[in-house]
Amino acid sequence: MKNFILVFFVSLIWFNISTAEEKEIIFSNKEEAVNAYQAQAISHGLADKIMDTLKTYIQESHVPFMFESKDSKIKFLPDTLLSELLTFKAVSIDLNNDDENEVIVYVSGNLVCGSSGCTSYILQGNDKSWKVIGDFFPGEDLLVSTSKTNGYLDINFDSKKYLCKFKDKKYQCN
Question: pLDDT in tens for each of the 174 residues of the chain?
């Protein structure tokens, strides 16, 4: 009977390991809106990055050119709406098997992306206490692996060219 129970548990564990699959996330294919949980993660975890972007918009990019000065006679409103400066796409996924979803956020917009793409951020926390535990660029497509480092799932990005592993309390990518 002991052997039967042992074989049963070993086969159950093997089944769970062998059926685990990688999860591919391609943000350009995502059409759905950010949900309330993800919005809370974004607003608290990326607050400094959002404020820096708005500061650039107000002080350097658009607003200074709305007013007549000795250097400029431009009197028209900016051609980029504030709502287009930052857009967010997100997925919620438990990366460390603690029954709490982390949020992977793809941030795009005129002031935050370059010719090679935009950045994605990995956020961890709850309620109003969120922090960035990783970022990668370009961040449009990623593959959450079944492999783990220090209890966190590894993440491949940019068509598997790069790998992020969890080390020293954050994801480090190479």
Answer: 555 444 444 444 444 444 457 888 877 666 667 899 999 999 999 999 888 888 877 776 655 555 555 555 444 455 666 667 788 999 999 999 999 999 999 998 877 888 888 899 999 998 889 999 999 888 888 899 999 999 999 999 887 888 999 999 999 988
Q: How far is it, in rounded angstroms, from Cα 105 to Cα 113?
A: 14
Main-chain phi, psi angles of 92, to 5 degrees: -110, 130
Q: Alpha-carbon distance 71 to 110, whole Å?
A: 24
Domain spans of the chain, in order of start: 22-173
Determine contact, residues 42/90, Cβ cutoff 8 Å. yes
Q: Does the model's pTM come out above 0.85?
A: no
